[in-house]
Structure of Beta sliding clamp:
Amino acid sequence: MKVTLERNHLLKSLGHVHRVVERRNTYPILANVLIKASEDRLELRATDLDIEVTESVPAMVTTPGTTTVPAHTLYEIVRKLADGAEVKLETEGEQMLLTSGRSRFHLACLSPDSFPDLKSGSFGHTFSIPAAMLRELIERTQFAISTEETRYYLNGIYLHTIENSKTGLVLRAVATDGHRMARAETDAPEGSSGMPGIIVPKKTVGEVQKLLDGADGDVSVEVSDTKIRFTLGTVVLLSKLIEGTFPDYDRVTPKNNDKEMTVDRSSFATAVDRVSTIASERGGKAVKLSAREGQLELSVTNPDHGTASEELAVTFDTDGFEIGFNARYLLDIVGQIRSESAVFLFNDAGSPTLVKEEGDTKSLYVLMPMRV
């Protein structure tokens, strides 16, 4: 193999593919990136056996060929080369020579024959969705993904289509860790109708989120019962799905919360952050909300450090009401609110609370209370 290409093109592609490679691997080949030179393209591929990322980049190919080299090492070398430099890659037996200007690197190669191929199979559903729309679904829900390994079916975002009585068929994303739930939806793209409900793993969600950062245009999404494939420009991300049944989230979504409180989002977040400074981790970072007509008091009691309280003006016209929350979970949810005001819908101190944006019907959040 003998190929020449521009350093910035190579760096950008390596930046996309090398992230899926784990630092520690049982199989040495999984630490490598597959490099295939043919015609006027250089194809890069990396996998961890659950996710596979492929990207092609323009190159001047003198001699076609295929090899594999350590992914993170190659990325660091290219990252440290001069901006706009020309890079030459050439295989010499069991090594690859990388030259750029006066820099020369010899990298050990492993045979591409043993490089795993994450077979894609056939996809029953294909649709295109604007990158900004997919990014919005992910950003509004990914914070609530569970990291608890025993309930593995919560370790991702549940993506499915569902009929919304007000807006028609929608594509909905849901994530929960049992303490809070995030739900976001958008009009269902053409071709998504009838797709199976799938659970996209947390790592895959993170990689897709990075690919979508600053991206424009449409993303092609292909779905089967066991895999999902995202195509954005020259990048293709193929991932296994989580096998399992996502819980009936609709059952825990409050339907009869009639105590409504509207509060300035920014002031509320600042107040929660301030009073929770003295909250104890042992006590679950608990903050108590005491609402009465026109006013909300936030308070924290820590037997070891003392107490804190702060008052805010709110729109609330019900009799006195008290409820407690984990401060961090509360801040996570309020951080997703884009409108100036956040709307809280309560039932009683032991029931889930509904949080949403003022005037927005496409996203909502559920937060479980805690004893204070």
